[in-house]
Amino acid sequence: MTEQNLTDSRYDVVVVGGGAAGLSAALVLGRARHRTLVVDAGEPRNAPSAHMQGYLSRDGMPPAEFLALGRDEIARYGVELVRDRVTDVARGEDFTVALERGGGVRARRIVVATGLEDEMPDVPGVAGRFGRDVLHCPFCHGWEVRDEPFGVLASSPAGVHQALMVSRWSKDVTFFLHRVAEEELSDLDLRRLAAAGVDVVPGEVAGLVVEDDRLTGVRVADGIVHSRSVVFVAPRPVPQTGLLERLGAEMDETPFGTYPVVDPNGLTSVPGVWAAGNAIGFTEQVVHAASGGYRAATAIVGDLRMADLDAALGA
To answer: Could you tell me the superkingdom of the organism this chain comes from (predicted)?
Structure first.
């Protein structure tokens, strides 16, 4: 990580975001001998998790350790990384990238890998336990909590799908309807829940019960406590796509947030701007984000190479 003054410095590529997608893109760009800068605000989505799962050869690694290794790797190829936040990007012959700590840099191409934030359900105790015994993804954490008594907190009728999915990892699942009325569930929903052995509990959830820093139950509004040691929730994803919107990128509104329209390599509708990781979708796991960063970087290398050759021909 560098603390040098980067004002008015010119890079081939500025990568906005130093998570898996951004570091992966930077690694490929550095190895292709492109002067690259990563601007990292240091707020990875998976920071609450003690370990990341499902990444071949890195299964179980702490996220902070994974990112530290990535930063070491990009440094070998001359990639610079600064702890800062990009506040704006302006289009011109080059892109002008404004930094929160003052000044800015110029770049020929931009990779936006700013990720998203998970907004927790407004239930007492949920936010403070997230990443420990309040979870959201069975593929990320299901094995580690297998066979424990699960609770699933509904945020909408779509919570049925989450309850059915997590029943793969435990036969003891209780689906708390919370603010969802039972009439909002279809007959097929109810029959599937019954087939999966999922208990359905109506009524609003008042909060979680924690004893000795361990989740032990879910309290509903009538005061009854249901013994549970794990609760799955569905956070509201908040994409960090403000830079893309200000650049005029075409956006697609989905039930899980508004994301940029990109081609298979992550190129947005703005020439010279790519996006990768959770900046393009809420389901991008670490392994997907790293892959997306790689694809974006290879496309940028080709794009810059052809631009340089065409410029040489013109000269």
So the answer is: Bacteria
Strand partners for 251: 260
Q: Where are the beta strands (DSSP E) in the chain?
A: 9-16, 36-40, 80-83, 86-90, 95-99, 104-112, 116-119, 134-135, 150-153, 173-176, 199-201, 205-211, 214-220, 225-227, 230-232, 236-239, 251-254, 257-260, 273-275
- DSSP output for 203-252: S-EEEEEEETTEEEEEEETTS-EEE-SEEE--PEEEE--HHHHHTT--EE
Using DSSP bridges, classify how beta strands 104-112 and 273-275 pair: parallel, antiparallel or unpaired.
Answer: parallel
Tell me the pLDDT tens digit for each residue of 250-281.
999 998 899 999 999 999 999 999 999 999 99
150-153 vs 173-176, strand pairing mode: parallel
Enter the pTM of the model. Answer: 0.93
